[in-house]
Amino acid sequence: MAPMAVSRDLLETFPNEFPQREYKIEIVQPEFTSLCPKTGQPDFGVVKITYTPKGKCVELKSLKYYLQAYRTEGIFYEHVTNTILDDLAAVVSPQWMRVEISFNARGGITETVTAMYNAAM
User: pLDDT of 79-97, one tens digit each?
Assistant: First the structure.
């Protein structure tokens, strides 16, 4: 089976049944994998997505497939974090959203990248 190309088209949504209420959704994916664009070696991390929905919520199975598509992508930490935020914000149109990825140590160095979206800005 050929690897899936990363595309926001993989992401599906469903209607938020409580659009009048401000509440928080937190999603954790502890097995995120992408590739180092310099070495081709795998990078592992924990993705944490937190948001307050407006009209739509992200469907989790589609999010799983979207995140898994990065397994064959050579991409820097900063780029992947911001791309995930851009794609989710475009599809879900939340009030606000934060994507944080804590990457495992490589060469004795860890890195956590956090990107924020605020519809009011």
Answer: 999 999 999 999 999 999 9
Distances (CA, A) of 121 to 9, 18, 50, 89, 96: 25, 23, 18, 13, 10
| pLDDT of amino acid 2 | 52
HSE-CB for 30 with a 13 A CA cutoff: 0
**Residues in the chain with pLDDT < 50?**
none
Residue 3: predicted pLDDT: 60
Q: Which residue is listed with tokens 């934060």? A: 98
Cβ neighbours of residue 120 closer than 8 Å, sequence gap 6 or more:
95, 96
Judged by phi (left if over 0) then psi (alpha if -120 to 50, else beta), residue 88 lies in alpha
pTM over 0.90: yes
Annotated active-site positions, please?
A: 36, 43
What is the distance between the alpha carbons of residues 9 and 31, in angstroms, rounded to a whole number? 22
* HSE-CB for 4 with a 13 A CA cutoff: 17
Q: How far apart are CA 83 and CA 10, in angstroms?
A: 14
